[in-house]
Amino acid sequence: MKKTLSILSLLFMLLAGMLSSCSQTETYAEQKDKELKAVKSFLDRDIVVRDADNNIVCNVGKIETISEEQFLAQDSVTDLAKNQYVLFQNTGVYMQIVRKGTGEKLEKGKTARVICRFVEFNILGDSIQLRNDVNYWHSSPDIMKVTNNYGTFSANFDTEINGGGAMYDKYGTTSVPAGWLVPFSYIRIGRQDSPEEGIAKVRLIVPHSQGQTSAVNNVYPCFYELTFQKMRD
Predict the structure, then answer these.
(1) pLDDT at residue 12, rounded to an integer
(2) Beta bridge partners of 229
(3) pLDDT of residue 19
């Protein structure tokens, strides 16, 4: 009898543990809902991104969202005075063009190596997760090999030249987040030849589905500030 009670007690404890575990595990739908709410909150907050020493890295501000139609009507420009970001409905990516850059757009059918420097801010975690705009990565920047496939862009992180940058080191893959490719339809990727010129600079809000592998697997959105510059031949 005692043995039977012990077995029943053990089964009850296991069942209770399983139920508790299930109740604490979010469904994918719940994770996506949390992500969406985090992005909406991010848009409406006067965000200042700070590093671990409380230094200001980027003043994001309160964001005004515009449609793709308005963006195109404005000659593919986001009004910085109004802190505008365009929302691409098919991907959920938000983009602000700070500078369109020097030189020319990447031509159709062409491939170029592009040096990228960035700050990656985890919106759900409310903190900087990764950055390569610091001295540690100065000699090993992230280099993207970008191809314009007649209007559709693809890219991989190039590890041949310097063994890979911060993204490859952190996430262990040469896959470039899909959200990073959105700006290439609108920016120029030349080099800065004079002090008056500025290389392309954008800010992005990237949902997990367009993000790096950790974001995809753990369902969280990221904010990025990025610069793009064509590498010397």
Answers:
(1) 53
(2) 115
(3) 42
DSSP assignment letter at 86 = E
Please state, in angstroms and as integers, the Cα–Cα distance from residue 132 to each residue in 63, 80, 141, 204, following that order: 25, 24, 7, 16
Q: What is the DSSP letter of 142?
A: E
Pick the CATH number of 28-230 from 3.10.180.10, 3.50.50.60, 3.10.50.40, 3.40.50.300: 3.10.50.40
**Contacts of residue 88, Cβ cutoff 8 Å, sequence gap at least 6:** 68, 94, 95, 182
Could you tell me what percent of the chain has a pLDDT over 70?
88
Q: From the CB of residue 157, how many other CB atoms can be counted at a distance below 10 Å?
A: 20
Q: What is the pTM of this model?
A: 0.88
What is the rounded distance in angstroms from the CA atom of residue 76 to the CA atom of residue 8? 68
Segment 86-145, tens digit of pLDDT: 999 999 999 999 999 999 999 999 999 999 999 999 999 999 999 999 999 998 999 999
Cα separation, 78 vs 71, whole angstroms: 7
